[in-house]
Amino acid sequence: MYILKDELPDVKKRKLPITVSVSMVVYNHGKFLRKALDSILMQEVNFRYQIVVGEDASNDDSKKILLEYAKRYPGYFLLLLHEKNVGIQENVRSKLPYLTGEFIAPLEGDDYWTDCHKLQKQVDFLRDHPDFSAVSHQAIVVDEEERILPQKSYNRAYCQESEFTRKHFEEYLMPGQTGTMLFRNYWQQFTPKQKEIYGLSTVMGDRKLTLATLFTGRVYCMEERMSAYRRHPDSWNGVKRPGGSSCYQYFESFELEKLARQLFSI
Fold it and tell me: Which of 21, 39, 74, 209 could join 101 in a cystine, given CB atoms 3.0 to 4.6 angstroms apart?
């Protein structure tokens, strides 16, 4: 792995701390990647943000696209480019120390944001509500060709109320699809032991962040639809698992319980 890190060219901006770390994992997302990156760069904000990308030795032009954007937009990107494929868990784990912003906003390389004020709205909410650790919003569901798909399956998996609670978590719901989330940087507050436990846990990343945000504060769910969640054969939801998704969720629930005990004694 090697790191490509750009410095902000504007001296005034360089003095500003990073407010939001946009966290992205990329693997063979070349077909959709420009759409995702453009949706980040279109954000209209009054703060500084960085884009931290873990690229996992893709077989397509993903790496080439990332280098192109880093050159075109100096000062925005921190690229972690793996020389060989390390898998989703290690790719996510490798980025964690570089997410130094006050808040973190994850976005998968095949999804995208649809509202240019998304980050500003969510940052404003968390700054106005210190007892909340995270805020999500609604999303549309699209296919490979940007056609909007029915919301039915999305609504069954994600919270449709204004606040995400432990009851929702126990029902295996999430506050929102990964790209809808903005949360306080709990990673920076973890002890070295908590970081080790969190990093080594095999629980999927969106479930881990949901657990961490829920047990470090309240989680608000905005009604606005400000992003697009893409479903396609190579996406997480497009992959078939032994025993089906119900079997997968059953066994992952044990890992979630274990992680809650180890991290928060809950």
Answer: 21
